[in-house]
Design a protein that fits this description.
With about 525 residues, the protein is α/β, with parallel strands linked by helices. The chain contains 22 helices and five strands. It folds into two domains: about 375 residues, no CATH class; about 130 residues, no CATH class. About 40% of the residues are buried.
Length: about 525
């Protein structure tokens, strides 16, 4: 009996320690969840998904821009891939490191306004937003926003508060990197400038050299990309404009955008209300005791976090009022400051009891999500998760060698995932030229003409118009069946279509000269 009481006492002491050391508790959860997701995705997913493959293909080209986005995500993906010997786990690790970076800078920024417990709670709340603990781990251009926007917010606040040169220079570097990751960073920077212009205590920094040095460094670091944009007729911006003109529109989309904006605030504040029960009734959680003085830092946290979230989101919402489209997923990557907003709404801050409850709920949520996602991935076969790269590469190389006299694939042209799969998993890594990507074609057009290429699609795609516009003659596609399956799921069938583009001066076989019907 005495031994049992001792164990219970130790467990109680251990549990109470989480309220006394919030930062360590946050670090423990961040490390464990990141490790588990890296291991889970590395073991359960047989092949890298589309966005990751696409980022690697972009990065291997080492250009200052791509057709769809700025270059930073591609550079990082290619770097991690090369450093690991092109191992898949390195890209899952890269994604988790962006989450760690986001949580760290969210904590650092929240620490400027709250005590350690409130700051840890603000950072911890981010994990309840879908993208910060997702069932699909994909490193892509959005990942750089998740990591760098909280850093921008942190260094901008530090610059306003202390006016130290190192903070302003760090802001310039982080802002440039964020913009090289995705242009949405510009919207956050506009939110920063508006906050600085409107708030009297921040406005005085316009008389300081710090903001101008940060702006100068920002433009200097962006200069090569800006020159690339000029040289390529602002191709990524035109691609974005085409997406906004071609998607879903109307009142229903506008309502969806409003709900997507409001969801993180509603979710996180409701969570804090529940954590405060039954000590406080729901309608009293956010009521301030009139006998207590107002906390100016808490008010600053609320205004600042809203400025850095709502102002950028308005750039997505307002166009829907005028019949433009928007990708709802974009809102989630601007939600990195919503944890600070939720905590700032609590007049008395985060108590030790509320923090421990929140921490326990977070662990339960993580465990349930981890088990559910793992069971789903192990049982439900998916084309871009469970296809074997060895099978795809083997079929591609066999097709090409049979027609080229045993030669290796020199280049590969096709849809952006399959062409990238051949580049990433083939032993000699032939460079991929993506169908419809004018930047890719600009780089590899002459090499395709000179050396020939393997052409690969998931189905018989009519690629002839883009091919002919690039000065190349299309060749017929031949379709083959292949199978894939999850670890415990049923086997599914799919098809791959291959074409043989011969090198210059080579006459292809009769089957590869047939006109496409």
């Amino acid at each position: 009996m005495k031994s049992r009481s001792s164990v219970i006492a130790r467990l109680k002491t251990w549990w109470e320690s989480f309220g006394r050391c919030p930062a360590r508790s946050l670090a423990l959860f961040t490390a464990v969840s990141s490790l588990f997701w890296v291991v889970q995705t590395s073991l359960c997913q047989r092949i890298l998904p589309l966005d990751v493959i696409e980022a690697i293909v972009w990065g291997e080209e080492m250009q200052w821009g791509q057709m769809k986005s700025p270059p930073l995500s591609g550079w990082i993906a290619a770097l991690f891939s090369r450093l690991s010997g092109h191992a898949d786990w390195s890209l899952y690790l890269a994604f988790q490191l962006t989450i760690v970076c986001a949580v760290w800078f969210s904590y650092k920024l929240a620490r400027e306004f709250f005590d350690e417990r409130g700051a840890a709670a603000a950072a911890m709340l981010l994990y309840f937003i879908y993208y910060y603990m997702p069932p699909s781990m994909k490193f892509c251009s959005h990942s750089t926003q998740v990591a760098l926007l909280p850093a921008v917010g942190y260094f901008f606040w530090r610059g306003l508060k202390d006016d130290r040169l190192r903070d302003w220079l760090a802001l310039g570097v982080c802002a440039a990197l964020a913009t090289l990751g995705k242009y949405a960073a510009v919207q956050v920077l506009l939110g920063c400038l508006l906050f600085m212009a409107v708030r009297p205590s921040a406005r005085k920094r316009f008389a300081s050299p710090g903001p101008y040095l940060a702006g100068g460094l920002y433009l200097l670091l962006l200069l090569p990309h800006l020159l690339w944009l000029l040289d390529h007729d602002f191709l990524p911006i035109r691609h974005l404009d085409a997406r906004l003109n071609g998607g879903e529109r109307g009142v229903w989309l506008m309502l969806q955008a409003l709900l997507t904006m409001a969801m993180p605030y509603a979710l996180l504040t409701a969570l804090l209300v529940v954590m405060s029960l039954p000590e406080k009734l729901p309608w009293r959680v956010f009521r301030r005791d009139v006998s207590e003085p107002r906390d100016p830092l808490r008010r600053s946290a609320l205004v600042y976090s809203l400025a850095l979230t709502l102002i950028p989101e308005l750039f997505y919402l307002i166009p829907t009022l005028f019949g433009r489209s928007v990708i709802l997923m974009w809102f989630s990557y601007l939600a990195g400051f919503t944890g600070i907003t939720a905590v700032a709404l609590l007049p008395e801050g985060v108590t030790q009891k509320v923090f421990r409850r929140l921490y326990a709920v977070l662990w339960v949520y993580f465990i349930i999500l981890f088990i559910g996602v793992t069971v789903d991935v192990l049982n439900k076969p998916r084309y871009r998760i469970h296809s074997s790269p060895d099978v795809i590469v083997g079929m591609a190389e066999k097709f090409y060698r049979e027609r080229s006299g045993g030669k290796a694939v020199p280049r590969v042209y096709g849809d952006r995932w399959l062409a990238g799969v051949i580049q990433n998993y083939s032993p000699h890594r032939p460079r991929a030229c993506v169908h419809g990507d004018v930047c890719n074609m600009e780089l590899y057009r002459e090499q395709l003409k000179r050396d020939g290429a393997l052409i690969i699609f998931n189905e018989k795609t009519d690629y002839s118009a883009f091919f002919r516009a690039s000065g190349l003659e299309p060749v017929p596609l031949h379709t083959f069946e292949y199978t894939f399956s999850s670890q415990f799921g049923r086997t599914k069938k799919d098809h791959l279509s291959f074409g043989y583009l011969p090198p210059a001066g080579t006459v292809p076989g009769a089957a590869d000269r047939e006109p496409r019907k």
